[in-house]
């Protein structure tokens, strides 16, 4: 075979279009493209499968099941009876306790949520400034209240805010002459919610606080040197221009955790039922109908509304703190 024929043969092979690989899904459609990508990265999805199985089994399916039950009347002992929107109508029109619980929960979430969020970030930033040798001691000191069990915390704070003269605060105020009779901290409707908020803030440095501590430890130290070249010298400027952008994933994670914990607050230092329902929350109202009255259909409607609130505010957090395309 001559050189000319060999060159012609090579050019023919080069110009021959490659045979497309067989595809199992129609990638022209969105669903098909998604399934194609999942099959393409099947090893990664296989490693994530245990999480998805647990999430679907214990979160998604119960949520869908609860949504279906919210349109029924079910007292556990009888079969569910379809009632349509009656539960939701009663929830917003006739259930005065739900409106009270909604107001209390919103008040608690508006104060405790942002304040604990900022406190966690500030203390984590503060701890990041101390030497490495003593940093674990600072982390333990700030995180210790979150490790305290609810029962032990209630006992300590119940003595602190005791309604008689033996309570620590009442005893101090009486000895200083600031008051002339004990304050009913846990019985007066004007003091119940502030007391609950104080106790909640005291123990609020939990998961989000540790996330911020880890986030600050992950910031590249070279970025501070690069920022110094651009004129960033003070600690506040480093926080604003280096730390905040670099800890944005932790800010988003902690925002979701804070929102969820703020709106799902249940039993507090004040016993349930509280005077004039001053400490009634949505979770306590839900548990009352599900665990005491066994009206599971109505309790499911409360749970659905609470989930919608959390999802809505969570979407706002993703819009504000999520990555911008």
Keywords:
325 residues, mainly alpha, MetI-like fold, 2 domains, two-stranded antiparallel ribbon, 15 helices, flat
Shape: flat
Helicity, as a percent range: 55-70%
Largest sheet: 2 strands, antiparallel
* SSE succession: HHHEEHHHHHHHHHHHH
Radius of gyration: 29 Å
- CATH superfamily label of the largest domain: MetI-like
Helices, by number, come to: 15
Class of secondary structure makeup: mainly alpha
Mean pLDDT: 84
* Beta strands, count: 2
In total, the number of domains comes to 2
Unreliable parts: none
Spatial ordering of strands, largest sheet: 1-2
Q: What is the CATH C level class of the largest domain, in words? A: Mainly Alpha
CATH topology of the largest domain: MetI-like fold
Architecture (CATH level 2) name of the largest domain: Orthogonal Bundle
Strand-residue proportion: under 5%
Protein name: Sugar ABC transporter permease
Subcellular location: Cell membrane
Membrane topology: Multi-pass membrane protein
Keywords: Cell membrane, Membrane, Transmembrane, Transmembrane helix, Transport
């Amino acid at each position: 075979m001559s050189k000319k024929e060999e060159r012609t043969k090579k050019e023919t092979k080069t110009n021959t279009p490659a045979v497309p690989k067989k595809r199992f899904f129609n990638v022209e459609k969105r669903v098909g493209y998604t399934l194609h990508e999942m099959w393409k990265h099947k090893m990664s999805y296989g490693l994530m499968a245990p999480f998805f199985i647990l999430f679907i089994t214990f979160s998604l399916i119960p949520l869908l099941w609860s949504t279906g039950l919210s349109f029924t009347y079910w007292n556990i002992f009888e079969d569910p009876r379809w009632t349509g929107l009656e539960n939701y109508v009663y929830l917003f029109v006739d259930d005065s306790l739900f409106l009270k619980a909604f107001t209390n929960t919103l008040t608690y979430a508006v104060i405790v949520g942002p304040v604990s969020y900022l406190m966690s970030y500030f203390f984590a930033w503060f701890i990041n400034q101390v030497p490495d040798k003593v940093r674990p001691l600072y982390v333990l000191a700030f995180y210790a209240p979150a490790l305290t069990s609810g029962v032990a915390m209630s006992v300590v704070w119940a003595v602190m805010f005791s309604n008689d003269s033996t309570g620590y605060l009442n005893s101090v105020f009486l000895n200083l002459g600031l008051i002339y009779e004990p304050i009913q901290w846990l019985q007066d409707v004007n003091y119940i919610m502030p007391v609950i908020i104080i106790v909640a803030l005291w123990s609020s440095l939990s998961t989000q606080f540790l996330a911020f501590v880890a986030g600050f430890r992950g910031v590249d130290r070279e970025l501070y040197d690069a920022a110094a070249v651009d004129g960033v010298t003070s600690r506040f400027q480093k926080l604003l221009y280096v730390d905040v952008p670099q800890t944005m994933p932790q800010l988003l994670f902690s925002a979701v955790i804070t929102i969820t914990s703020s709106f799902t607050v249940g039993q507090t230092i004040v016993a349930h039922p509280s005077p004039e329902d001053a400490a009634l929350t949505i979770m306590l109202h839900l548990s009352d109908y599900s665990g005491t009255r066994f009206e599971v259909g109505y309790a499911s409607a409360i749970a659905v509304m609470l989930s919608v609130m959390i999802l809505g505010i969570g979407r706002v957090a993703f819009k504000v703190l999520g990555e911008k395309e």
